[in-house]
């Protein structure tokens, strides 16, 4: 459906990066953070603030792209299936838009046919942990076990050797998690656009989802959505159409990483 992106040695080289300096603000690697940002507005990118920006940059973690190109990146978190992922996949296929699905072990086991379709359609699978724990409170071995167990089940199901991108459940993390992730070959991907869309029984309507997305859209947006919401499934085609109308192109997380690293071939074959 679209070009296959580089997922091997080139990207892996960028994941395991050592710190140039240590910010004293983050003296303890066990300090726990809940991902929170100043929302994007009027096309201006979301901001996490200098301390968090420095921490994420130290470990190569990313939450947005560069602000000078109208590019957006769709990501979805899937902990369980609620009947709307197929519609979302249909929309992505029709619009030829790539996405990354951050899955849990429960989703691999309970919605295996949808996972196989994600892979067949050319989407990326991200590691959202196997059991959806608070990853920041695990030991180093516990962190490794969560990621590896997920990858093992994914390999068994799809033949994919392993995942490259990780996202901590509920956005809870610490420096230790980012450090161990790097050592294991994972790059953490957060987000710059999100809204309350994870309650399966709380419907607010497609307009709510559409407005939440369009109001926060900005160059380099990494968009987080949950597939449990019917509102999202209904709003997605409208949002994609509006974003394209505004001149946005949707690219993959591979493109985002290459852009972040100033890799010279980044985006060359994806420029509209």
From TrEMBL:
InterPro entries: Glyco_hydro/deAcase_b/a-brl, NODB_dom, Polysacc_deacetylase_ArnD. Residues 70-251 form the NodB homology domain. It comes from the Bacteria. It holds the Pfam family Polysacc_deac_1. PROSITE patterns: NODB. This is Polysaccharide deacetylase.
């Amino acid at each position: 459906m679209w070009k296959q992106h580089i997922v091997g040695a080139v990207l892996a080289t960028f994941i395991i990066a050592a710190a140039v300096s240590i910010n004293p603000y983050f003296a303890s690697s066990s300090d726990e953070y809940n991902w929170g940002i100043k929302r994007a507005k009027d096309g201006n990118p979301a901001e996490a603030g200098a301390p968090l920006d420095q921490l994420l940059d130290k470990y190569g973690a990313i939450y947005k792209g560069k602000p000078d190109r109208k590019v957006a990146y769709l990501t979805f978190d899937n902990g369980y299936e609620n009947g709307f992922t197929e519609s979302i996949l249909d929309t992505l296929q029709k619009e030829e838009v790539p996405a990354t699905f951050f899955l849990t072990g429960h989703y691999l086991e309970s919605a295996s046919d949808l996972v196989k379709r994600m892979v067949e359609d050319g989407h990326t699978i991200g590691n959202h942990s196997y059991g959806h724990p608070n990853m920041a409170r695990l030991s180093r071995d516990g962190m490794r076990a969560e990621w590896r167990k997920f990858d093992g089940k994914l390999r068994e199901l799809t033949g994919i050797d392993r995942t490259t991108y990780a996202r901590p459940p509920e956005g809870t993390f610490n420096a230790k998690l980012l450090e161990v992730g790097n050592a294991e070959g994972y790059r953490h991907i957060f987000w710059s656009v999100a809204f309350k869309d994870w309650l399966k029984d709380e419907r607010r309507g497609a307009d709510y989802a559409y407005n939440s997305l369009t109001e926060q859209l900005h160059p380099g947006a990494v968009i987080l959505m949950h597939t449990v919401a019917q509102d999202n499934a209904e709003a997605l085609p409208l949002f994609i159409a509006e974003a394209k109308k505004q001149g946005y192109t949707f690219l993959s997380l591979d493109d985002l990483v290459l852009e972040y690293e100033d890799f010279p071939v980044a985006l060359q074959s994806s420029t509209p």
